[in-house]
Amino acid sequence: MRFVKMSNAACWKEAQRYLVGGVNSPVRSFRAVGGNPFFVDRGKGPYLWDVEGNRYLDYVCSWGALILGHNNPTVLAAAKRALARGTTFGTPTTGETALAKAITQAVPSMEQVRFVSSGTEAVMSAVRLARAATGRRKILKFDGAYHGHSDALLAQAGSGMATLGIPATPGVPPAVTQETITVPFNDLEAVKRAVRLYRKELACLLVEPVVANSGVIPPASGFLAGLRRLTREAGILLIFDEVITGFRLGYGGAQKRFGVRPDLTLLGKVIGGGFPIGAYGGSKKLMRLVAPAGSVYQAGTLAGHPVAMAAGLAALQALRRPRLYAQLEEKGRILRDGLIRHADEAGVPVAVHQVGSLLTLFFTDRPVRNGDDARAADARRYARYFRGMLKRGIYLPPSAFEAWFISAAHGTRELKMTLKAHQAALKEIA
Ligand SMILES: *Cc1c(COP(=O)(O)O)cnc(C)c1O
Fold first, then answer.
1. pLDDT for residue 167
2. Which residues, including other chains, have CB under 8 Å from residue 314's CB and lie 6 or more apart?
3. Is position 56 annotated as part of the catalytic site?
4. Are residues 335 and 391 in the same domain?
5. Active-site residue among 58, 141, 263, 269?
6. Structure confidence by residue, pLDDT tens digits, 4-15
7. Is 242:254 a contact under the CB 8 Å cutoff?
């Protein structure tokens, strides 16, 4: 029983005393949209409740991890069963093999897998592996993509870096980012030039196959296939960062959807069923370079955590329902069409990008093909729109540069609620 009624404002004040910026990850603060974050008490299905008892329809879903919605009964039961046997053992469990097997069956390019505790770790471990495998140093990536917060990849990154307008962060030595080459997304000619210029120095090309950290930006037709061709010709490893798209854009991720096979794949978010996780994988030939099979060192005390393995496996099993991804796609389309229709009626120029259950509403009258275009959209207008939606109980990402995540728990009722709030919020910003 709770005797003292808590308020969001009091929680926020207290949090700021003890936590830097009041949060443990920058985009959770409402710095880019104004106001203070609410404090979550619990979640169920597509909804969150804050400590004051207010309900929100959640389009953040723990930044994409919760594709089945909050507190999914199957995932929760699997996590509880695992927990009843102990928390962590630091020695092999069959749960690790089971989740790895399910992943390799779903994503054929991943013949073997290594689990880590976050997407960031997956990315930096795969880059280390790529450098070891090729004997080269440089990394090619795209402006506005986000690949976690490891030093080498915090150059022109998306997500919180874009949200807060930080191009490069202090604390990263120039020698580290000098090895990172950044080119615009959807620009195959720029990739070609970079490959020509750094031919013998590039270890890998790292790409979010659908950019989801500068808002959602789909690859132009033939772009991913072009990357595959260019990298193969130049002996550069192609790494798909599917931390968001994996098991979200289909059971086999973006690589299945677009029919392009990368050398290495990074996973996270969805595969942990709401627990901390990351994974990287590829051909046996590449993966056997990793310790203890090979000499590329990479380790983790809590890697392959039993609860994350059990919850992740339960989530994947639930996702294997044949119609699930078609339904998510349909929900995405309904939302996209409604968002565009009402914006047209209100005379507010927008570009709405939707790929499966990923969606972004850009306030712009120009096409958005890359990071520059995304940054040119009206982020201040988004901030006002965000507040208008929040006031009506719809929680969108507190940043113009993050995707909206639709979950399997979002139903027709929820989509209608969203579009109704959208119509009203547009009136305030038109
Ligand atoms: C979230 C994300 C990461 C980092 O994962 P963490 O678990 O937050 O470390 C890496 N790449 C992409 C594409 C992401 O969206």
1. 67
2. 74, 75, 77, 78, 79, 273
3. no
4. yes
5. 269
6. 678 999 999 999
7. yes
